[in-house]
């Protein structure tokens, strides 16, 4: 007893710390451990395969490959074009959905007849599964002969475009933007609604026009919400797959092949597990670079 | 200053015009499902036609919708419930007993979401095959649980942060242990937040099309695979495709519309107070 009195501070601090982690650790550990396994085991396996000659249809090629798979991949022009396509896809969709989402959020914040129903119609595409969106756009909307869009174009005297062969990447960007615009509207609309109406009223009294109050009041208020939209969308846009396999299968040529689809094609269509894994490792490295910057900027807004 | 009538009408027209354009593909899918195959490809397209259930009957005879729908429900609900069970205690600890590692743990969790699934498809495929979980509902439930866990933890964390500490401490005074505090005080208080987290997770599972297409073939195939089987053109297929798509989308669309108010709260990750 005398010893505890003699050194009260470290002893008590130690006791408190162990008792605290003793109670909280079993609660947090399952989630952390399971995620750790999920993020490390497949990663290590992918890393292992990426240094192997491993082709499912060519069992003669086995053994350590060194950096062969990486060298093959990095000198392949398809790889670089897939990287650029990924950038265009992510950048294009983000640009369209963030700008469009902000404008639509301001629009649907206005009071008008049937606003509630109109909002439900606008957000509907977010709930539609990507495979269905892609199929509906490819066949019912954009089909060069039977599609509604083609008919409309013919109706006004324009020769319909064969979207998926003439402007394939832009068309995919358009379809994906249609899916994600509702998400941006949902979040930004909630943010706009939380804006203090008195503040806007005061600005109007001071003679600020609609455009000035949009740039000086609404937009700064939306900063954090826009950050959330960019981050969540980025997570999903980096790994776009269903829309591409359903509409173009990466083509024509490699015009709509993004990194995710390139890896899929290498590993599962050309049975080159080693090459596909090397692509996987590169994709993971790139995703981590993006994650690092995104998460860092997001962390500034995070109060823990 | 009241906006003039003309301005009000202009806003209403713009709001409705954009809404109709955005919704049009879904509307068109819905009505094409009730057309005959010949009507479905008529040029110019008809808005008025003789409705028929023929396509729905053909879809059902080609692939048993209920089987796929059942798989979708079981896999989505299973993955969501498991993720919630793991995430609720973890988010509780991080929100109320933060240490110097909490922030890093949260950010690390989010960064695992950015790994492209395709990068680890091969190992996951081989692991599932080795454990006999390939093409089973259990396998997909586990994958979906892992896939959504980071986002679920994050959303719950932001909701739990909104619960005042004092209320939990009052419960602690009454002698509730950690688990008691979690179950009897925190969970009832943040039920709306837990609900909206679950809703988002359900929607993400239902619509997920990478793992479900690559890891199932027949027994455990959900509706995404059902749709994929109607994607290859065989003669006239627009009406059948539309009918199948409507069947696959309708449950989650109605569910999403009904729960949108709830859902939005969760999606904002605490960015909107």
From TrEMBL, chain A:
Write the signal peptide boundaries.
none
Q: What Pfam family is a match, any one?
A: BPD_transp_1
What membrane topology is annotated for this entry? Multi-pass membrane protein
User: Which InterPro entries does its entry note?
Assistant: MetI-like, MetI-like_sf
- Principal localisation: membrane
Sorted keywords for this record are: Cell membrane, Membrane, Transmembrane, Transmembrane helix, Transport
Q: Return the PROSITE patterns for the record.
A: ABC_TM1
Q: Where in the cell is it found?
A: Cell membrane
Biological process per Gene Ontology, one example term: transmembrane transport
Superkingdom to which the source organism belongs: Bacteria
Q: Which residues form the ABC transmembrane type-1 domain?
A: 83-294
Spans through the membrane = 22-49, 83-108, 120-137, 169-190, 225-246, 277-295
Family to which this protein belongs:
Belongs to the binding-protein-dependent transport system permease family.
Q: Which PANTHER family match?
A: BLR7065 PROTEIN, INTEGRAL MEMBRANE SUGAR TRANSPORT PROTEIN
UniProt protein name: Sugar ABC transporter permease
Q: What are the leading ranks of the lineage?
A: Bacteria, Pseudomonadati, Pseudomonadota, Alphaproteobacteria, Acetobacterales
